[in-house]
Amino acid sequence: MGLLSEIRRTTQHVRRGHLPHPVGTPVLQVADLTVQYGGGLALEDLSFELRAGGRTAVVGPNGAGKSTLFKIIAGVITPTAGAVQVYGNEPGGHICIAYVPQRSQVDWSFPASVSDVVLMGRVGRMGLLRHALPRDWEIVWQALSVVGLEELSQKQIGQLSGGQQQRMFIARALAQEAELMLMDEPLTGLDAAAQESIFRILDDLERRGVTVMVALHDLKLAAERFRQVMLLNRRLVGFGPPEEVLVRENLLQAYGGHLHLLPSEDGLLALGDTCCDQGVVEHV
Amino acid sequence: MFEWLLEPLRYPFMVRGLLAAIAVGVVCSTVGSYVVLRGMAFFGDALAHAILPGIAVGYLVGGGARGPLLVFSLAAAVLSALGIGAISRGTEIKEDTAIGVIFAGAFALGIALISTVRGYTVDLAHFLFGDVLGVRPVDLWLTAVLGGLILLVVVALYKEFLVLSFDPILAATLRLPIRLLDYLMMILIAVAIVISVQTVGVALMVAMLVTPAATAYLLTRRLPVMMALAALIGAASGVVGLFASYWLSVASGAAIVLVCTAVFLLVFLLAPGRGVVWSRLRRISS
Fold first, then answer.
1. Does B37 touch chain A (CB under 8 A)?
2. How open is the CA angle B182-B183-B186, to the nearest 5 degrees?
3. A169 in contact with B at a CB cutoff of 8 Å?
4. Residue A37 above 70 pLDDT?
5. For A156, which DSSP code?
6. Which site from A231, A273, B157, B283 is most exposed, i.e. has the minimal number of CB atoms within 10 Å?
């Protein structure tokens, strides 16, 4: 992909805005997706379809390819083989896909305030050489009020708590007017209260018709708080309601020896290992 | 009373030097804010050194005329930047290693080229350490025009560069022309370096890019304020450094950089709320 085609693409976006969303097409269609990294495969033969609205938990062990999948859907990485279509078109044509980064990937000492960061979500719509209009600020304030951060809007981003930082990025995705949000481990490292506030926002997003994919490594949360779960370990192990996906056979296939299944009073108890969190407990 | 201030200003070369130092201070520090935020200090240092062969060829071709000097040093900077990109993308070699290879190779080529000319030690010293008092009116004009252009681009693409520096993945999902912006940023840094060579020289260039911006970074948590403060510190250090060099008979480029460094150390120790002394005091009182 040459520099010239990049320029051409950009000017097209500025002229046309973003690509249309035909009614009835699935938000996301992934077909035979394969990604090669260095020597190994990060994702292999992944195929699935996602209907508009609702939220999906994406679970799997470390290195299962959750972040890679999100970056491909967002159009940041190009796959080695296979196709991804968002509303029937390649992701690169859309500015309505938001990737919400892991908090550990962000430079929190960057000289920006909360409202600066949320306004960044508007940059794609403003166009080159344009400055923020009153309408852009209006949208920023709306987004801040949805996540309850109006009062902290002038704080430097490093002064926020973990939960507030996560909410700020969701506000940025709202300001982007995203219809598909990909959240990479938004609950990791948050205490129960902060997690609850994120879930309240996720419920709100669901009412607004936003499609959300959430990468998680807490199987218990995936089972209890999502109606749809995707179990990933480079390949798609299972996709559907949690009671069908998070079963012994699938979990063993995804986690292999890293998961211990123990008999307990109400069925099987699955103990997953995770990098940075306390052990995960799931009743199956 | 102001004799010490006014006396140097009787010399036109001193006035031109001061104007050049102010322009360089403002331009380098503004661009340098992005260099600091994106962790490109080593890249900036390398680029400054890598323009030496360009300067040499321009010098040999033009015999001291500004046009060729400018064109060839810019070409050298752009070629080095592209070379670094090509090596780190095309092989398993990490980017900082690629920078090291290109930087030292280009620098050596520059020295070799200049050494073919008689009396090269004097010229080489000028390129390496700057010769701000040798600034001619035409240099001043070139610095003003190119510096103004750089500032214009920085202001015009402020929000795009901001997004790219803070979150490249967001820039990608907003479908900004990332590679184009990256190249543009490299060219801005390269032009800033080229117009500053005469003031501080190749060897100390990175200080003008990094030190005032780092000082401002310690004082504020807003990017526009950081850029303005960095520009102010850069310009003021240029003026103070040049006066110091006049009265203390110190090399001008070194004097300017030393003032920048002194300001940084002062702020590092005493910055309200964040300085080392301040946090010590807070720890004692609590």
1. yes
2. 90
3. no
4. yes
5. B
6. B283
Q: Residue A110 is nearest to which of B37, B157, B170, comparing CB atoms?
A: B37
The number of C-alpha atoms within 13 Å of A35 and in the hemisphere containing its C-beta is 26
Pairing type for strands A180-183 and A28-37 reads: unpaired
> Given an 8 Å threshold on Cβ–Cβ distance, is B174 in contact with A76?
no
What tokens does B209 get? 């890019």
Of B159, B165, B178, the CB nearest to A123: B159
The SS3 of residue A120 is: helix
Runs of H (alpha helix) within chain B? 3-6, 12-37, 41-50, 52-62, 66-90, 95-115, 120-129, 137-156, 158-166, 168-173, 178-200, 205-219, 223-248, 252-270, 276-285
Side-chain-side CA neighbours of A150 within 13 Å: the count stands at 9
Give how far A248 is from chain B: nearest CA, Å.
Answer: 36
CATH value at residue B141: 1.10.3470.10
- Asked if B159 has any chain A CB less than 8 Å from its own CB, the reply is yes
Chain A residues with CB-CB distance to B174 below 8 A: 95, 121, 123-124, 176
Contact A239, A231 (CB under 8 A): yes
* Number of domains composing chain B: 1
Sheet strands side by side (includes A211-215): A97-100, A180-183, A211-215, A55-59, A228-233, A235-240
- Tell me if A74 and B226 make a contact (CB, 8 A cut-off): no
φ, ψ at B39 (rounded to 5°): 65, 40
Tokens of B240: 């103070």
Output DSSP code: residue A44: E
Q: Which residues of B50-71 are buried (b: 16+ CB within 10 A; e: fewer)?
A: bbbbbbbbbbeeeeeeeebbbb
Residue A179's nearest CA partner among A281, A95, A67, A266 is A95
Q: In chain A, what are the domains?
A: 3-96+179-283 (3.40.50.300)
Q: Could you list the residue range(s) of the whole structural domain that residue B71 is in?
A: 3-285
Of B173, B183, B217, the CB nearest to A99: B173
Question: Does the pLDDT at position A25 exceed 80?
Answer: no
For A87, the token pair is 């509303």
Instruction: Give the gap in angstroms from C-alpha B59 to the nearest C-alpha of chain A.
Output: 32
CB contacts, 8 Å: B160 with chain A: 123, 128
| CA–CA gap between residue A69 and residue A65 (Å, rounded) | 6
The model carries a pTM of: 0.87
Tens of pLDDT, residues B195-253:
998 888 888 899 999 999 999 999 998 999 999 999 999 999 999 999 999 999 999 99
Long-range contacts of B181-185 (CB under 8 A, 24+ apart): B181/B157, B183/A3, B183/B81, B184/B153, B184/B157, B185/B34, B185/B161
